[in-house]
Amino acid sequence: MNLINGFCLTAGILKGVQVLVVDNDRDSRDLYAFLLTDLSANVITAGSVGEALEILNWFTPNIVVCEIRFLGESIYTLLNTLSVMEADNRNHIPIIVTSTSTTGTHDQIPDVEFEEYLLKPFNLDKFVSMIKNLVQQFVVENFCPDLQFYTSTLWRQFAYL
Predict the structure, then answer these.
(1) To 10 degrees, the CA torsion angle through 132, 133, 135, 140?
(2) What's the pTM value of the predicted model, to 2 decimals?
(3) How many helices and strands in the chain, by DSSP H and E?
(4) How far apart are alpha carbons 116 and 95 in whole angstroms?
(5) Which of 3, 14, 81, 83 has the largest CB neighbor count within 10 A?
(6) Which residues contact 76 (CB under 8 A, 6 or more apart)?
(7) What are 109-152's pLDDT values in tens digits?
């Protein structure tokens, strides 16, 4: 529905979206934070899994962008914590996994559920589009209540046809 993109999300495409970026590469972290903050997201960054776990004590993200490889740390600890948070809040937290490895990374994590996988370096427009698509329902529910009412009313009308 193009109305959402043109009407609601133009000024601050990620307004109010809470993003946790976990990456051991400072340049990547800073780039993602700068880009997403410029699009009105609230971005918190972490340079390690341990730091991310500390942040999750006081911050509940709507989406997580996370590098897959950390020296001496397991991403599984972070993903398990996110699963517990999802169960407690009854809200799914989408995960975009990033990596610089061209071989095997995606296959090495078969039991980890994540929505998207990006091989670095990646297209930043595609990155923003992924985030927007994964959190679009959150944005509509929280920042476009009139549009949400319109959309649900429209669907009910089609159901009777």
Answers:
(1) 90
(2) 0.76
(3) 7, 5
(4) 7
(5) 14
(6) 112
(7) 545 567 788 888 888 888 988 898 888 766 566 556 555 454 45
